[in-house]
Amino acid sequence: MSIRQNPHPSGALHLPDFANLGVWLRVLLGVHVLVGLGALAANQHGSALPSELVRLAALVEPALIVTLLWLRLLRRLLLRLPGLAAAALVLCIALAGMGGSLWLSSLLEGSGRMMGWRVLCWTALCVLCLLWYFDRLTHQHLPALAEARLAALTARIRPHFLFNSLNAVLGVIRSDPRRAEAALEALADLFRVLMRENRTLVPLSEEIALARQYLSLERLRLGDRLRVCWQIEDMPPDAMLPPLMLQPLLENAVYHGIEPLGIAGEITITLLRQGDQLHITLSNPCPQNSATAVHSGNQMALTNIRERLSLFFDLDARLDARADPHGGRYDVHVVLPYRRPPL
To answer: Against a cut of 0.70, is the pTM above it?
Structure first.
């Protein structure tokens, strides 16, 4: 389940992101399980169970789809409301959808056999059960996110990077003090971001600025050996990303791609928006004799990024990595949903 970017206190009720595919699948599965239990309760002997299941499914399916669509459209409003108010709105929308489905069913059947009040009570119970489930799931994910942050911190703050950066600054502090001062400021900014709480999405512009600061430090050390090509196509600067998405990918590209190369190499970063999806592709050199080592060395950072993508976006995001030793490149492709900052 994706983490809802809730501005309210951590003790408040947490609602899921109703634009998320994983949330939809869980809701569909949960509702159908509860419908099956309702059919069993209404037919204890089981003789008319199949027909009862079909009848309830025909009644519930339209209301469920309409309710989910409305919740997706009202996602921004739900994000701004306090937890209990948002839950009450979700309950009202679900009851309205089921009420409409009951009304249409009574018109089509032309009889009053449908126990409307029982169905509405069952609907309210289903909604409350699902909201409780998502709230518990969110509370379980928050410690997991904190643990993932610590793992990411351990994976990213490599001693060699800190020592090499300081040595590079010492190397130019006499000849170019302004450049050394700028490098120390960039290093301080980088570690300030690494040490802060990273439980909310951040703007793409902030991620790019942090990545450029990191690259400026590495360029101070590697000089002309490090070449970087940015390709940004139709990418809104206010698009929201998980924090520290670009920097660890770039650090792996430098550490496993440029340094073993021994000669000048180029890292290509492509940022592209396609509809409701953001595509981030990073390509770095991959020497033929070190493809296996590069692949194994990347796994810790890539696994951590996959875990954080799952925590933030559930099934709506993915990360693929591929080594092409014959082409001499290692490519990482990240796909995530386009999220804008809440109003």
So the answer is: no
Instruction: With H, G, I as helix, E, B as strand and everything else as coil, classify residue 131.
Output: helix
pLDDT tens for each residue of 16-35: 778 777 888 888 888 888 77
